[in-house]
Write a structure and sequence with these properties.
There is one protein chain. This protein is of the alpha+beta class. The protein has one domain. 46% of the residues lie in helices and 22% in strands. It has 5 helices and 6 strands, in the order βααβαβββαβα. Strands 1, 2, 3, 4, 5 and 6 form a 6-stranded antiparallel β-sheet that branches.
Length: 149
């Protein structure tokens, strides 16, 4: 299922509240800010940008092709400001998943399962490249020794 991420909170706020009806439906467990950024890019809302400090300091808002909305947000997490958030961007947190239906939770899990598969693929490629260059160095050393012999 495809989705569109809202780039600006003001675009999202144009929707009538009765059409949205979002509340917490579940959690995205043990994810970092960087994990979500890797998948969804910049957050739709950052309290630090608006000089606001409320219960939600960073939030991604997406709309699925069937019209359902999903939000992924921190809740009562002390980021304080953008600099602090960047320092803690790798810390794991149980992010809140909001939505207009409980099915959005499994959709979010599907997105992040794919991210994990991609990450594992990238790590495997890096290992293979490392092994290749380690072997390449060993081959070069053997060649040098044979030339010297």
């Amino acid at each position: 299922m495809t989705f569109t991420k809202f780039v600006d909170i003001d675009n999202f706020l144009e929707y009538p509240k009765d059409d949205i009806n979002i509340s917490r439906k579940g959690y995205l467990f043990d994810a970092s800010y960087n994990d979500i950024f890797f998948v969804l890019g910049e957050p739709t809302y950052k309290a630090a940008q608006k000089n606001e400090y409320d219960k939600v300091s960073v939030e991604w808002i997406i709309r699925w092709e069937d019209g359902l909305f999903t939000t992924i947000y921190d809740y009562k997490l002390e980021w304080k400001d953008a600099l602090c958030r960047k320092k803690n961007a790798t810390d794991l947190y149980d992010w809140h998943i909001g939505g207009s239906d409980y099915c959005v939770v499994s959709r979010v899990y599907t997105i992040f399962d794919r991210m994990e598969e991609m990450r594992q693929g990238i790590q495997q490629a890096i290992q293979e490249i490392s092994e290749f260059y380690k072997n390449k160095d060993a081959i070069e050393e053997v060649k040098k020794k044979l030339q010297l012999a």
